[in-house]
Amino acid sequence: MWTIDAEWILSIPISQHNMTDFIAWSYTKNGLFSVRSAYSVEWNYQYGSKLKYSNGMGRSTRNPIWCQIWKLSCPAKVKIFLWRTLHGTLPCRATLTNRHMKVSPLCPTCSQGVEDTKHLLFLCRKAKEVWKRLGLDMIIERACEIDRAGEAILEYLLLLPDQDLRIMGYENVREMVAISAWYLWWERRKLVHKEFT
């Protein structure tokens, strides 16, 4: 047993009531522990909050980003890319390094920073060039100042209110953001895997 595990176990408070102990796992119907149920609990803890919003009265509703993604007029591969990115499963180098894979965390495109979702999609030299050519560089700059996570910035851009987009004079911005983000990933993938087609 690891020392840290022993410390955690010893820090569990003992009940002050005279109750007999019993074994129970409330995350399965039969009350028995299974590895599958533990993974399910952990997944819900990490990602379930992104899938649902609470209205503060005990009821939860679907996060509007998922409806927005599936309504986009773009190829299914782009929608799946967005879904994966917003769930934090895009295999950027920082993510792979955090999972103890032996890769350099530096961006393979610019070698200027750690390649996480934010760098890949918004801060890399190549990404900035793409957003500037599309005329979205100022919106993205403001979004990057507000939040640190690339997933949150992408979600913010995809959920921009229609009236804000009309005022700025843009049409099909969500599709443009979605396809541009996918394009940046595709270009990076070609570079890393030496796919020159």
From TrEMBL:
InterPro entries: RVT-Znf. Pfam families: zf-RVT (PF13966). Residues 52-131 form the Reverse transcriptase zinc-binding domain. This is Reverse transcriptase zinc-binding domain-containing protein. It comes from Aegilops tauschii subsp. strangulata (Goatgrass).
